[in-house]
Structures are given as structure tokens and as C-alpha cells.
Design brief:
- With about 270 residues, this protein is of the alpha/beta class.
- The protein has 12 helices and 12 strands.
- The protein folds into 2 domains: about 100 residues, 60s Ribosomal Protein L30, Chain: A (2-Layer Sandwich); about 150 residues, 3-Layer(aba) Sandwich (Alpha/beta knot), CATH 3.40.1280.10.
Length: about 270
Amino acid sequence: MSQPRTVTDPADPRLADYTGLTDVELRRRREPAEGLFIAEGEKVIRRALAAGYLMRSMLLTPKWLTVMADVIAEADAPVHVVEPALAEQVTGYHVHRGALASMTRRPLPAAAELLVGARRVAVFEDIVDHANIGAAFRNAAALGVDAVLLTPRCADPFYRRSVKVSMGAVFQVPWTRLESWPGAVGTLHSAGFTVAALCLSEQAITLDELAARDDDRLALVFGTEGDGIARGTLAAVDEHVRIPMDAGVDSLNVAAASAVAFYATRPRNS
């Protein structure tokens, strides 16, 4: 059991993992390099621990000591107790949930490893918005997607906002970052996947048509709202797919589109 310790100095080196949490560029560079990520809120911390991630430390305001008592009792990592004003000074924002944990990342698996036994996978191409990534992971977890593949420029699913929006679903769905794209389309083909890109294209079939085929192994590719999927990707995939729209709307954002596509293409015999 770790004994909670009160910290009163915002410059205390024991709080280093939690400094500048609102500085996206700083955290994007620092967290993967140092092998850490931040879990925010009781539910997310518990889900990270349940998924087997190791805790480096925990930062709590006093009122959360009772709520997190069982976690503290089992923790080998230090537990730092700070007043809300100090937490805000250190992190850069009002920590209204009052509970943060610094967790240890695990090495990412190879894409080919994730594809073994998978039937439905999602590929996110250059999605840089952390909230969209978090929401898409929550959709993937809820709707039975077996794995998520991210292109090199995608946002970090373990960035604090992504984790928070996903409600910890980023810990449930196996994922990795591809080393090259669209070169990795070949990896998907080698594993027996039909690769379908959600896009606005004259040659696109409807999502209903794709779903009716019930492909045994299917990879769905999603791009950014602004630029859409890259031309090289569109040339490499097997199918272009569109979600039929009404009322003059031409597309959904990636979080909404992924939810619709995941549900429509779920394996029929599962």
C-alpha cells in the first residue's frame, strides 16, 4: 500500500509527470518519449489498471482520497495529494475530476500481429483531432472492431483528451501505429482483408452494398473531414464506399461515420 503524501510546491519534481497538460505539442513529444500517459478521472484510471497498465504515480485532491481508497491500497506507486489550486497551477487547467494518474505505456505490437484472427479492423488516416480519435475508439470498442491501425500522422490515442473522450476504450481495443501508409495496404491484403475507404467518390458503392457482401475480413479506412482520404490510398484500396445522405448533407464527421460503418458491417454470423 502506498502512503499518500501531501505536496505543496508546484515545482516539486515528484509532480513532473503532470506539468503543462494543456500544452498539446509538449505532451505529444514528451509522453511517448518518456513512456507515459495520463489517465484522468476515477473510471478511466480504473479501466487503465484493469487493462494491465502499470501506474507511475497518482495525483489526487483531498476529497478523492476516500473514493480512490481501494486503488491506493493496492498501489505500489506514490500518491501525491494536492489542493485544487495547486493541481490547476501544475497542470494548467481546473482538474474538476480531482484524480489523475501517470501510467506506463507498453510497446506497440506489429500490425501483422494484430491482424491474426481479426475480422473487422479500422484504419484512421491522418486524424489529428484528439477528441475524434477518442470517440472513434469508443465506437470501435462498443461495436466489435477487433483492432485499430493508425497512420504515422494520426493523433496519439493515449493523449489525455483522447483517453478521456474514449472513456478508457483506448485501453480495450488493440491498436498500433503503422510505419508506412498506404504501403501497409499490402499488409492488409496479405492477411486476407478487403480494404474499403469511406469517401466521396464517383465510383463509390453504398455502405449498404458493402454490408450486404458480409466480407469475411474487412478493413475500413477513414480520413480527415477537410482533405479526405489521400489519392494514393484511394488508388490502393479495393473499394470506395459512401454513406448515403439526405437533406443536402454530403458527409459526417469521422466519429459519426465510423459508428455508422462499424454497425453496418458487423459480421452477420457473430
